[in-house]
Amino acid sequence: MAFKRKSVFRQRLFRLPLRADTRLVDRFKAYLSIQKDSLEQSFGRIWQTPVASTLTILVVAIALALPVSFHALIQNARHPIEALETTSQISLFLKPELGNDVGRVLTEKLKKNPALMGAKLMTKEEGLRELGAYSGFGDALAALGSNPLPAVIIVKPAATDPESVSRLLVELKTLPEADLVQFDNEWLQKLQALLAIAERTVMAFSILLGFGVLFIVGNTIRLELQNRHEEIAVAKMLGATNHFIRRPFIHSGFWYAILGAALAWVVANLLILGVQDPVNRLAELYGSPYRLSFLGAGDTFTLLAIAMLLGVSGAWIVVAHFLRRIDAD
Amino acid sequence: MRDYVLPPALIPDREWFGPLFVYMSIIVFKHVTKRYPESGEALSDVSFVIERGEMAFLTGHSGAGKSTLLRLIPAIERPTRGEIMIDDVPIHALPARRIPYLRRKLGLIFQDYRLLNDRTLFDNVALPLLITGHNPQDIGRRVRAALDKVGLLRKEKCFPPALSGGEKQRVGIARAIVHKPPLILADEPTGNLDRELAEEIMRMFREFNEVGVTLLIASHDPDLVRRFGRRTLRLEQGRLLGLS
Fold this sequence. Notes:
Order of helices and strands of chain B: HHEEEHEEHEHHHEHEHEE
CATH class of chain B: Alpha Beta
Low-confidence stretches of chain A: 1-18
Strand content of chain A: 5-15%
Helix content of chain B: 25-40%
Largest interface: A-B, 35 and 40 residues
Structural class of chain A: alpha+beta
Number of strands of chain B: 10
Distance between the termini of chain B: 18 Å
Radius of gyration of chain B: 18 Å
Number of helices of chain A: 11
Strand content of chain B: 25-35%
Shape of chain B: globular
Helix content of chain A: over 70%
Order of helices and strands of chain A: HHHEHEHHEHEHHHH
Oligomer: heterodimer
Strand order of the largest sheet of chain A: 2-3-1-4
Radius of gyration of chain A: 34 Å
Structural class of chain B: alpha/beta
């Protein structure tokens, strides 16, 4: 008899008839309508508490706008620098005692080199004129009796990757006429290194501020949970699953993050708009067709997706913690 | 129906849990003990059976373990020892994720009503149906039927703070029956109400019982219980003293 009793219990345990007594189609329809209602309701709740919600959304927006605008500016800086990279050139200074004729012969020879896109001779006189024009030392240079400048050949490498460039540099250095070979790209590389540092810094700040968004949304949801403590307790008593209780709060987190991200998008574009004029004037001064660009579709999408992820996970963490505490009570 | 079943107090001791028995009974407590780490044993070795379709009372002084017993059934508390079967489900062994589905089979009525003050009567009563995921038309129909049954259909757009105590308890009852549970548990449902209102609530319970709902009602008012002449479980200091 004891055995039989036990087996009945076991049967019952594995064959629990505990399910909603509704059809699957109805349940799916209900699910959709619940999702829609819940999204609307959580939006309505945000709308009904304008001050608190606006504060949260503003803080989220600021936390997101900072990294986003820096990111946009760095991306903007990256384009002209990459454009510069293709115009890199090598200055081949000839030994000062060699005259322009030697330079001319060497230039012709270099032009036939397949590793080079072109070579142009800058004679001693041209060099002096250019230095005078750009440095403002014109008068002082005119006072010099003789021209101290060497002839220079400006060489354009065919390939711009660092390896072939350095191979070319070695090749040029071994020329008997060469005194000094200078790769004008070095400053560009330094600039790029600086840019990389800036990018890393922005990335680190982004991660920090991302955590900020997580905590802000989490904290707002926590307050909301406390306000609706009684409601949650009653719903649990009436058979609400944790999923059911979690849903509206996840949706609140979603709204805070999405609205904050939308505001951040506006703020970032306003910042870009603010610096647009001076940057464009600078580009004009350099005769560059470059213009500052706003946040593109890809960046906007990434911003919204990351914000959504942060908002939803912030809410999730807090609600999960809350539910665990309630269950323990 | 009763004729087929042995006196309930005897059944657990005879260790007879055949399928017929399981079918006939909706609540089975078998040597259930609940001990709190702070306050000691609230229930000790309680065994009883409530049949399907029965209306039973649970009496005893405050602190006798009535509330604890009623909290064990929806698995708000878990027993320290013993076995509890509710509508064929062994809830002493029920995993936590199944508990919501157990509670959906129950109608719970509280002494302090536990209504949501920021929602209309309609929304309060609709909550169990929202939780189970009924479609909106169905919810409207059922909620109105439940409110009609307790005589509050006209006030469906009111908020609970605008109601009297008796009306609040009727809303609580509407919420407990709207999803048509086979078992209703009421913890001191008339504790805050005067005699007349209490009578009215009890009459309502009897009506439910007549259509086949099982009710277990905790009450510390012996007069009320006696007047209804139903089976009564008497608890004292955590022990089941007897059935009358």
